[in-house]
Specification:
By secondary structure, the chain is an alpha/beta fold. It has 2 domains: 2-119, NAD(P)-binding Rossmann-like Domain (Rossmann fold), CATH 3.40.50; 122-276 and 302-313, Dihydrodipicolinate Reductase, domain 2, CATH 3.30.360.10. The chain has helices at 13-22, 36-46, 54-59, 72-84, 99-111, 126-136, 156-159, 164-181, 269-288, 297-313; strands at 2-7, 26-32, 49-51, 65-68, 88-91, 116-118, 143-151, 184-192, 205-212, 217-223, 236-242, 246-250. The strands form 2 sheets. It has a 6-stranded parallel sheet, sandwiched between helices. A 6-stranded mixed sheet has the order 8-9-10-7-11-12. A hairpin with a 3-residue loop joins β11 and β12 (246-250). The longest helix is centred in the last third of the chain and has 20 residues, at 269-288. The N and C termini lie far apart (47 Å).
Length: 321
């Protein structure tokens, strides 16, 4: 068995916990939160340890791996500390707040011979894996144009806890398109705040046009400013036009859960299952069967570099090489 501890017990941690419980070889052994009362509450539900500090978690010899779902600011120091303690790491996105930190995380985990895998959960959906197979096998000819979107309303008070729709949400779209089409040749972007009045420094709309080295053109749309509840919703969609056909994945056409959530997308079954799938892959395939992650920390470095480039040059009307 692979003994797993969870660091960070916010909304998304419950999906990671379910991923551990649903895996073949994973066993939840402990949880950590900056609120010890919260840690004890969750620990009592699952019959596991509650750690008073992240150091206590890292010093626990029963722990083989840690899933870091804590605040974005904690991802970098906790990954470094866990790696030095010999723990494998599955770290939520964004893995850090700068590309330099992501590079250090990757090098540190390599130095201490532990796996560090980013939560690039969107590519672990059966639909995206099927799309990758179609591209690899040239089943529909050459991909010509792709459109990918994550577009839903997030309340301003919730959004202030994050780092804008570009870094927090468009991150998913960038690594997904890199997984499908390879590296980019150039891009141009627009990033803005169009709906928030109190926290004007939080971007809630990002539009990026990309050209990939394989010849595919693409557009991504990332927004926190509006919900789209129409039958052909852009809440989470990937559409690819090929020479011989079109592939469309629209998560909102699947079932949704009627349960409380801070944003609408998290109620979809597809979204929630991405976490079950990636946690199971991390434990059962990467740690036990020694397979490579479908998307690595090197991919996270490239993703973050692209996002930083967009943020730096957005709205200047420049084509970025």
């Amino acid at each position: 068995m692979v003994n797993v501890a969870i660091s960070g017990l916010g909304e998304i941690s419950r999906l990671h916990i379910q991923g551990v419980l649903r895996s073949k070889h994973g066993k939840l052994v402990g949880v950590f939160s900056h609120s010890y009362e919260r840690a004890k509450e969750i620990a009592s539900i699952y019959g596991v340890k509650a750690y008073k500090s992240f150091e206590d978690l890292c010093n626990d010899k029963d722990v083989d791996a840690v899933i870091i779902t804590s605040r974005d600011e904690d991802h970098f120091p906790q990954t470094i500390q866990a790696a030095k303690a010999g723990k494998h790491v599955l770290v939520e996105k964004p893995p850090a707040l700068t590309v330099e930190e992501v590079e250090i995380m990757n090098k540190t985990c390599e130095k201490y011979n532990v796996v560090c895998m980013p939560v690039h959960n969107y590519i672990y959906t059966p639909q995206i894996l099927h799309l990758k197979e179609i591209i690899t096998n040239n089943e529909l000819g050459r991909p010509i144009f792709a459109f990918a979107s994550i577009f839903h309303k997030i309340d301003e008070e919730v959004a202030k806890r994050y780092h804008g729709t570009l870094i927090t949400q468009a991150y998913h779209l960038i690594y997904t398109l890199l997984f499908l089409f390879g590296d980019i040749e150039y891009l141009v972007g627009y990033v803005d705040n169009v709906s928030y009045s109190k926290y004007k420094n939080v971007d809630d709309l990002a539009i990026v046009i990309l050209k990939f080295k394989n010849g595919t053109a693409a557009q991504i749309l990332s927004g926190w400013c509006c919900d789209d509840l129409t039958p052909t919703s852009w809440t989470w969609m990937v559409k690819v036009f090929f020479e011989k056909g079109v592939f469309t994945f629209n998560s909102m056409e699947s079932l949704t859960y009627q349960q409380p959530a801070s944003y609408y997308q998290s109620r979809t079954i597809d979204f929630q299952k991405t976490f079950y799938n990636i946690v199971s892959y991390f434990i059962d395939e990467v740690l036990v069967n020694k397979k490579q992650p479908l998307s690595t920390m090197k991919d996270a470095v490239r993703t973050f570099y692209i996002l930083n480039t967009i943020k730096k040059n957005a709205n200047l009307g420049k084509i970025i090489i």
